[in-house]
Specification:
The chain has 294 residues and is an all-alpha fold. It has a single domain (5-293), classed as ABC transporter involved in vitamin B12 uptake, BtuC, CATH 1.10.3470. It has helices at 10-36, 43-58, 65-87, 93-112, 114-117, 133-156, 158-168, 170-175, 180-206, 217-228, 234-250, 257-271, 276-293; strands spanning 123-124, 208-209. Helix 1 packs antiparallel against helix 9 (180-206) and helix 10 (217-228) crosses helix 11 (234-250). It starts with 9 loop residues before the first helix and ends with a helix.
């Protein structure tokens, strides 16, 4: 007996699987940008590191997920540190432009180095996560829950509070003796690590990695996190899940799909600028406090 009735429909099973991965994309973007205020416009670069690394290896050796996923975590975190060291010194829009440039360079390399990356067609033949869709979904769901939980706990810890202090007033934090470069680079490493792991899992899930499923995520991760609500991990993750699921459901409307999706985004940002799930969370807490007073 399975926990979710959705398992009777393999199409919905696939939608749910991708939606929970997108929840991790949004949450990992939020861990850096939502907490520190450093807007990362190149999040797809770290997703690509995890996904394409698995593709490279799989073209030579059919690497198993239990080996590739930890490897993706380490490599993505290292790249996060290497890219964060020079870029995090930039302030305001310059950091955003620098990270956007990094993602653009990665995209151009992915296409131009076609002998290694498969170019616009991508890399096929990657080892699947498991032998079946149901077990793959449970694998993805377990990873997503653990990843979001870890980032949430870090966000609620002293580490997360220090990151938020950097967003509020970096100079004041420095005056208090906080090693701001260490904390910013650590946040970048954690953010890129979970993005890279998610990228590797998607590559195994599809048995494929390519530009079409990687590079649009720089913008999409931001949209999902902002619509859900930034600075809290869980609202951003729920935003990723919600928008991915809504987008897939709207595909039934054919050519009206993108228009309806855009309307949803506009309405949510106009009427709930703090984020849908930040708003709902605040309402629930208000109702709970009123109930406790009675």
């Amino acid at each position: 007996m399975y926990i979710f009735p959705v398992f009777k429909d393999y199409y919905l099973l696939n939608v749910f699987s991708i939606a929970v991965i997108y929840a991790v994309y949004a949450a990992s973007w939020d861990f850096l940008s939502g907490f520190t205020g450093k807007e990362n416009f190149g999040h797809a670069a770290f997703i690509a590191i995890g996904g394409y690394m698995i593709g490279f290896i799989s073209s030579v050796y059919p690497i198993k997920p239990f080996l590739s996923i930890p490897l993706a975590a380490v490599v993505s975190a290292i790249f996060g540190i290497l890219i964060g060291l020079p870029t995090l010194k930039l302030k305001g829009p310059y950091f955003a432009l620098a990270t956007l440039a990094v993602a653009t360079i990665f995209e151009k390399l992915s296409i131009s180095l076609s002998d290694l990356t498969g170019g616009e067609e991508g890399i096929y033949g990657i080892e699947f996560l498991t032998q079946g869709q149901i077990s793959s979904f449970y694998f993805v769901l377990t990873f997503a829950v653990l990843a979001i939980l870890i980032m949430y706990i870090l966000g609620k810890s002293n580490f997360g509070l220090i990151l938020k202090s950097l967003r509020s007033d970096e100079d004041a934090a420095r005056a208090l003796g906080i090693k701001i470069n260490f904390y910013k680079i650590s946040a970048f490493a954690v953010s890129s690590m979970f993005a890279g792991i998610a990228g590797s899992i998607v590559a195994h899930f599809y048995g494929y990695i390519g530009p079409d499923i990687v590079y649009p995520l720089s913008l999409n991760s931001i949209i999902m996190a902002v619509v859900g609500g930034i600075g809290g991990i869980v609202p951003a993750a729920l935003g990723g899940f919600f928008l991915t699921f809504i987008s897939e459901m709207l595909s039934e409307f054919g050519d009206w799909n993108q228009l309806l999706y855009t309307v949803v985004l506009i309405l949510s940002t106009l009427f709930l600028p703090s984020g849908i799930f930040n708003y709902l969370g605040a309402k629930i807490r208000t109702i709970g406090s009123k109930a406790g007073e009675k």
